[in-house]
Amino acid sequence: MMAGEGKLLDGSVCSTELRTYLSEVDAAQLDRFANECLEVPFDDSGLVLQDVVNEIGRRLEFEVGAGLYRGRRGTPGFDGLWRSGAHQFVVEVKTTDAYRIPLHLAANYRDQLIKSGELGEDSSILFVVGREDTQGLEEQIRGSRHAWSMRVIGVSSLIRLLMVKVKSESDEVTERIQSLLRPVEYTRIDGIVDLMFKATNEAVADSASAEERPEGDQDARIVGNLSPENSAEATQANRAPSSPAAPGMEAVRERAAEAVAGKLGVRLTRRRRSNFINPDEQVRAVIAVSKRYPRDYQAYWYGFYETQAEFLAGAERGYLVLCGMDTNRAWSLPYPFLVPLLPRLKQTVREEGQRYWHIALKLVGEECQLVVRGEEISVTDFGIRLPRPPAGAA
């Protein structure tokens, strides 16, 4: 990962290019880069790790401010500032805790930032440590007056949290991951159990996701835009079990992300299971995948969540990308095109309060039509070709 002049200095071209590059790679590559920094150290590997960790913080949906690579007299030498709601973290990245870490220095950084107004009292210090064995640092913190303002996490564990998050669609999972990093009393571990339960349920639900539920959603009720002739059918369908997801769904989603990025001339990285974004966050795509259904009136069916609509609404260019499992085609609908049509679509309210719209596509020869109340609208012109799957891929 050589960038700029090859020397990491605050405000340098090298620093800017490295951080831009890290913002464009996927989570698995961040994992690889972190491991390389720790297992095969090189000049400035600790500084590269600092940038990798801050990028992981961004992917966990913290507001992140990068710290200094090297301390300056009179300037707090923290590695990152992360904000989640009202709570803020002073982040310190350490490749190892083999030597004694001066806790008072990190505490002083926090105090200085509070006095300068850059940090609030609702803040804490998070040590991100390369080594798995952090017993020495943990004992230091437990035996100090900083026990309620400092926490420790290994780089590998932070990356595992990121992997959980990018496989999820849920705001709740993201919020629980963020809350795990705060100093809290862990005599009662309900919050940790809740996160594990929610994340596991989402992983299982991926085989019966809203993308794959035209037959019904056991935990939902359909509201709005139901004609008298199909209301009874919808009620019955609502009691039916969800259909299993087709294998290979994620591979199709990845290929669609590649195709959309190529067409728009940007780099897209995954933020959640279906949400993709470019580095400046102004190009966003929600990529949904459906298997083929043997119905003349509905070839593909998708669920489009309100949270996904909010995600697209926050971009200069947002797209809902609808993929078919049985074809190398997808349809990339611009969000402004979709917005006025949403009131004409059925909507389901799930038991926990989440809402999603029912989106159905119909194929007529080579033409693709979006089925809305009282009309079938051609979306053929929004079609894109997906790259062919690698040889031997399922």
Number of strands: 17
- Per the CATH scheme, the topology name of the largest domain is Restriction Endonuclease
Characterize the biggest β-sheet: 6 strands, antiparallel
Helix content estimate: 25-40%
Give the total of domains: 2
Order of helices and strands: HHHEEEHEHEHHHEHHEEEEHEEHEEEEE
Question: How far from one another are the termini?
Answer: 32 Å
Beta-strand content:
15-25%
Shape: elongated
- Given as residue ranges, the uncertain stretches (5+ residues, pLDDT < 50) are 206-210, 214-220, 224-245
CATH architecture of the largest domain: 3-Layer(aba) Sandwich
Number of helices: 12
Overall pLDDT: 81
Structural class: alpha+beta
* Oligomeric state of this protein: single chain
CATH class of the largest domain: Alpha Beta
Radius of gyration: 24 Å
List the helices and strands and how they pair.
Blueprint: H1 13-24, H2 27-39, H3 45-59, E1 63-66, E2 80-84, E3 87-94, H4 103-116, E4 123-129, H5 135-142, E5 150-154, H6 155-166, H7 171-180, H8 190-205, E6 220-223, H9 228-238, H10 249-264, E7 269-270, E8 275-277, E9 283-290, E10 300-305, H11 306-313, E11 317-324, E12 329-334, H12 335-338, E13 347-350, E14 355-364, E15 367-372, E16 375-378, E17 383-385
Parallel strand pairs: 3-4, 4-5, 9-11
Antiparallel strand pairs: 1-2, 2-3, 6-13, 7-8, 8-9, 10-14, 11-12, 12-17, 13-14, 14-15, 15-16
Helix pairs in contact: 1-3, 2-3, 2-6, 7-8
